[in-house]
Design a protein that fits this description.
Elements: H1 2-23, E1 26-41, E2 62-71, E3 77-82, H2 97-106, E4 116-122, E5 134-140, H3 151-211
Antiparallel strand pairs: 1-2, 1-4, 2-3, 4-5
Length: 214
């Protein structure tokens, strides 16, 4: 059953990694080419990939969503949604959708005269499921070759690893001090009971043999 245990651990690790990859901030160097607003239906399971603004009920099945269209230095298209997160998850506390929309419109440029910006976002892009990353910040950069160091993500991962390690160390200490001795006592009890049962069965066989004249 060892493969089941390792398979479960790998599955949990993939879940945690996917959750962190979706939630932590990412940075794209792009050129903004257009912005638009479109009505989105939110009635199916993909609703989990859309935010629920504080000013709107969670039962609303459709609403207008702002989008930002961009192109990266390699010519690949990227589309971001522009939604407030408010006080909901993930905790970006974004309340400036209108401001970001204005900044995006101001940064629109052409291929002949490109203006490069760094778009900070979270989430994934999936064309088949109509999933879009949510832009949370835009700032101009010097050019398409600028490298953005993900300091925030690094600090968060470091803190999470420190918490995990501290919990693991304390769990191992607690297990060695409290759980393992109890398990050893139970195992010793089972061994003693098995020995006693074996001895009783031996006595019973000897008694049965004497009564049969063997």
């Amino acid at each position: 059953m060892g493969w089941v245990k390792w398979g479960l651990r790998a599955f949990l690790l993939l879940l945690v990694a996917g959750f962190l990859h979706y939630t932590l901030p990412q940075h794209d160097i792009v050129r903004i080419v257009n912005t638009y607003e479109e009505r989105q239906e939110l009635g199916d399971w993909t609703r989990i990939f859309w935010t629920t603004p504080d000013s709107q009920p969670g039962t609303q099945t459709s609403r207008d969503v702002q989008f930002i269209q961009a192109v990266d230095p390699d010519g690949h298209a990227m589309v971001y949604r522009n939604e407030d997160t408010g006080w909901n998850w993930p905790p970006y506390f974004k309340f400036d959708t209108a401001t970001l929309y204005t900044e995006a419109n101001d940064a629109i440029s052409t291929k002949a005269a490109p203006e490069w910006v760094a778009v900070t976002h979270y989430g994934w892009r999936n064309e088949y499921l109509s999933i879009f990353p949510n832009a949370v910040g835009i700032r101009p950069v010097a050019g398409p070759d600028v490298r953005i160091i993900p300091w925030v993500s690094g600090v968060i991962l470091l803190v999470l690893f420190a918490i995990f390690w501290a919990v693991r160390v304390r769990w191992l200490r607690f297990r060695a001090a409290r759980i393992d001795p109890v398990l050893e006592d139970i195992e010793d009890g089972f061994d003693a009971a098995a020995d006693s049962l074996a001895e009783g069965r031996g006595r019973l066989r000897r008694w049965w043999g004497r009564n049969r004249g063997v």
